[in-house]
């Protein structure tokens, strides 16, 4: 007994210490928390930053870099070193070759390294400059220095002192806010829009600067402030002034503002008699509008457009093509170096060829236009051909439009993956798409990442104190930003970095959190839409299971259209004997996926309609496999919660509880999906549940009667 007491006491004290010292956090600081470092870590960081030196004239961007370093060091060390004029041993030196010609004058290697970094890249290293041992943050521009400062602070916070050379692989790294002018947010689950249009331009929320800091820390360099379902008013003088006020705040952080433009704006404002993109009065109106915007915002980024999609106006209303529409806007912004991001998220308008598989329609409309877009137009393509489902194969347009710069559109907000209640780390989902081999291009083929010129993420940011509605949803913003900078980065590394920055670098915390994150999205796929199923969510709000819905005005809004389950089988036949959507992929892929045996199991029912007794590689029938996936989804979700519970002593009480409550909700959600889907598919297949599979808690009618009239996110 006497031997055990000290050990037990020590354990108790340790857990008390962690509990007592982990002060409650509300999540506002995101991954820029700068909490006090441990003693040894402090000594190491102090030695790298005895003084901060940034030669040359101050600019708003260098001021932002210095302010962030001082904020970070004050937090981590208790006291920040002052900026100093002279380089000395132990300086943290921020320099460009223009600011400090001596930096590269006699250092050919550094000169070459810097040349490889382009305008926005940076490098971090311990080196000698002018005879002094310094920690160097070097870049070719002030914005590169700011990015470098954030990277150095990250390393300091998590104890990494490695040399780094980093340059963005994509030029355009944007957030898309689906925020309305009344501050509601379409598909937003984290409060109101952060953009207080009513208060602007005079009233500038301090959050705008923190928003800029968070995004700059990831290298995000553009933001579209308003919803793709846009309103004409956003292009009137008063909103241009409001937009300019936001642009002024974001500019020092390297972030340009863009607006979603409604195609019929001049007509709806009664300033033209048509919105036909070839009509001279319309072309002139947009030119004048662009001039007006650029007068207020000289570095305005350009327009994002959703046209002829889900009821939005567009060039097809005038029998013109997407290229005619995009090029007309492109001509208006070209003299100012602006761009147009034209979305490829289109499917047939009401009444038009509705017999065509919806998954084929964007490709059919856009592929023939390859080569017809103006040089400053990018086509923005969602990751998959349907609509941000928990799992989709990559969109066949990637790799198919070699003459057109393409942007990837990912959804960060979790419209179809459990809002901000369910924990689903999307880094793995983005990675899966980006790594997919399109089998186009030279040799082995280009991955989706290699076909991109830019990336857009539909933001999950709102007025909630923690910005994203839940702590773990911050990781999706983070992962998106990191992958926009480097689409070949690894989701797991990003998760580990985020977890260390967000919950502290203690590996006892980081490892289990990364484990939770890495299984989380697959768990959601399993309990919602396993084996390639898709689009089975509730009507309009997209919450909860509704595989039975078959009565909406368009067939391709109905879940039954997508799963096609009947007595004999389940799945959407997209092979040559079905819709042949497969033919839109490169021949190697089309051949491989033509056979269910060589189709990845996770996409099986996306491409094939199979009998319930189809033999799966596991040895189970398809019916039994489907049930097993639903059960696995529930089990994984419970396991995630158990892993989180074990972290209780190591995480501040507030964040622990907020995550725990959501995990409880998620387990219930997973059970609901499982039970409702099993009840429904059993009613269709007529098959018994194999031994050991638990029957749903309620009859099918119960699930069919559930309604969510006040579900959030409908804007
Ligand atoms: C769908 C959303 C809808 C968006 C649309 C889009 O449900 O709110 O407007 O995508 O991307 O997923 O335009």
Automatic annotation (TrEMBL):
<keyword id="KW-0858">Xylan degradation</keyword>
<dbReference type="GO" id="GO:0005576">
    <property type="term" value="C:extracellular region"/>
</dbReference>
<feature type="domain" description="Alpha glucuronidase N-terminal">
    <location>
        <begin position="30"/>
        <end position="152"/>
    </location>
</feature>
<comment type="subunit">
    <text>Homodimer.</text>
</comment>
<dbReference type="InterPro" id="IPR017853">
    <property type="entry name" value="GH"/>
</dbReference>
<keyword id="KW-0326">Glycosidase</keyword>
<feature type="domain" description="Glycosyl hydrolase family 67 catalytic">
    <location>
        <begin position="162"/>
        <end position="467"/>
    </location>
</feature>
<dbReference type="InterPro" id="IPR005154">
    <property type="entry name" value="Glyco_hydro_67_aGlcAse_N"/>
</dbReference>
<feature type="active site" description="Proton donor">
    <location>
        <position position="310"/>
    </location>
</feature>
<dbReference type="InterPro" id="IPR029018">
    <property type="entry name" value="Hex-like_dom2"/>
</dbReference>
<feature type="signal peptide">
    <location>
        <begin position="1"/>
        <end position="22"/>
    </location>
</feature>
<feature type="active site" description="Proton acceptor">
    <location>
        <position position="415"/>
    </location>
</feature>
<dbReference type="Pfam" id="PF03648">
    <property type="entry name" value="Glyco_hydro_67N"/>
</dbReference>
<dbReference type="InterPro" id="IPR011099">
    <property type="entry name" value="Glyco_hydro_67_C"/>
</dbReference>
<dbReference type="Pfam" id="PF07477">
    <property type="entry name" value="Glyco_hydro_67C"/>
</dbReference>
<feature type="active site" description="Proton acceptor">
    <location>
        <position position="387"/>
    </location>
</feature>
<dbReference type="InterPro" id="IPR011100">
    <property type="entry name" value="Glyco_hydro_67_cat"/>
</dbReference>
<comment type="similarity">
    <text>Belongs to the glycosyl hydrolase 67 family.</text>
</comment>
<keyword id="KW-0378">Hydrolase</keyword>
<dbReference type="GO" id="GO:0033939">
    <property type="term" value="F:xylan alpha-1,2-glucuronosidase activity"/>
</dbReference>
<keyword id="KW-0119">Carbohydrate metabolism</keyword>
<feature type="domain" description="Glycosyl hydrolase family 67 C-terminal">
    <location>
        <begin position="469"/>
        <end position="692"/>
    </location>
</feature>
<protein>
    <recommendedName>
        <fullName>Xylan alpha-1,2-glucuronidase</fullName>
        <ecNumber>3.2.1.131</ecNumber>
    </recommendedName>
</protein>
<dbReference type="GO" id="GO:0045493">
    <property type="term" value="P:xylan catabolic process"/>
</dbReference>
<dbReference type="Pfam" id="PF07488">
    <property type="entry name" value="Glyco_hydro_67M"/>
</dbReference>
<dbReference type="InterPro" id="IPR037054">
    <property type="entry name" value="A-glucoronidase_C_sf"/>
</dbReference>
<keyword id="KW-0624">Polysaccharide degradation</keyword>
<keyword id="KW-0732">Signal</keyword>
<dbReference type="InterPro" id="IPR011395">
    <property type="entry name" value="Glyco_hydro_67_aGlcAse"/>
</dbReference>
<dbReference type="GO" id="GO:0046559">
    <property type="term" value="F:alpha-glucuronidase activity"/>
</dbReference>
